[in-house]
Amino acid sequence: MPLSFEGSGTVLAQREHFTDSGYLVLPGLLPAALLDRLVPEVDRWVDDGLRSRSIAACVDPGADGDPPPVMELELPAHGELLTHEPLLQIIADLLGAPFVFHHLHSDRHNPGAPGKPWHHDHEPNDTGDRDLVMVHALHYLGGLDGTVGTLTVVPGSHREPWSKSALAHLGTDPLPGEVVIDTLPPGSTVVINSALLHARRPAPSPPGALPRYFVDASYCQTGARWRPVKPYWRHMLATARARDLGGGRWPELFAERHFTEYARSA
């Protein structure tokens, strides 16, 4: 499948745009049938306490890095999402190299949810090679309409060596050159270079505003060993292989050799 992006242009032009700006908007990438199964899984993930237990397993992993009782990728539609073939083909075209799955997060942001300050999500690799790219696919299951926060990015900021929280003291205050993304149809995805500065800016939620269903999945170019963010990362990758989530089409996607040992971030 060719790249499918907002706007027009050749695949090469869109790849150059991603390289320069650090993000691409993919309106309506996810099919309705998948969305219909994802939304109740997110509700279960939040309402049954599975998300809280997943967070606890990372905050206090224990001596053996024990996994939570359920991981996101064990939810059937979530597993399908992280290996959604059109998405993986787009990432392959963008990165131009094999890549490995890094992690998956899922959440529901209710009306009135607070914002998230300026930050980036890039993890280091063991060679310190900043030319190796890590991406996050930000999936907005119900789209964006400006009622439960907006995604705000600073194009080109991925080229600067910011620390993750270098601008967190600014909260979500406007930054020069920022781009606000607040209008997207259901099933839209924004692929960002993980080193791109971005924020979730809170927005007033009118009466009747609906929750925002959000899933993000991260992938890394191969060529170095990346630092994992889940202490139970080996179990996560082994489970993905056992469930054959890649379907044999992406041999590097769940390979352990692309990661260092887990170490808590400083």
Describe the structure.
This protein is an alpha+beta fold and 266 residues long. It has one domain: Sandwich (Jelly Rolls), CATH 2.60.120. The protein contains six helices and nine strands. It has helices at 11-21, 32-47, 50-59, 76-82, 85-95, 233-242; strands at 23-26, 99-109, 116-119, 134-140, 150-153, 179-181, 188-193, 198-201, 212-221. The chain has a five-stranded antiparallel sheet. It has a four-stranded antiparallel sheet with strand order 3-8-5-6, with no helix packed on it. Helix 2 (32-47) packs across helix 4. The chain is globular and about 45 Å long. The N and C termini lie far apart (41 Å). Residues 1-8 have low confidence and may be disordered.
- N-to-C CA distance: 41 Å
CATH topology: Jelly Rolls
Question: Shape from CA axes?
Answer: globular
Per DSSP E runs of 2 or more residues, the count of β-strands stands at 9
* Unreliable parts: 1-8
The pLDDT mean sits at: 92
If classified by CATH, what would the architecture be? Answer: Sandwich
Structural class label: alpha+beta
Q: In order across it, which strands form the biggest sheet?
A: 1-7-4-9-2
Radius of gyration over alpha carbons? 18 Å
Question: What is the class in the CATH system?
Answer: Mainly Beta
Number of domains: 1
Specify the CATH homologous superfamily.
q2cbj1_9rhob like domain
The amount of beta strand, in percent, is 15-25%
Largest sheet, strands/sense/barrel = 5 strands, antiparallel
Oligomer: single chain
Element pattern in H and E: HEHHHHEEEEEEEEH
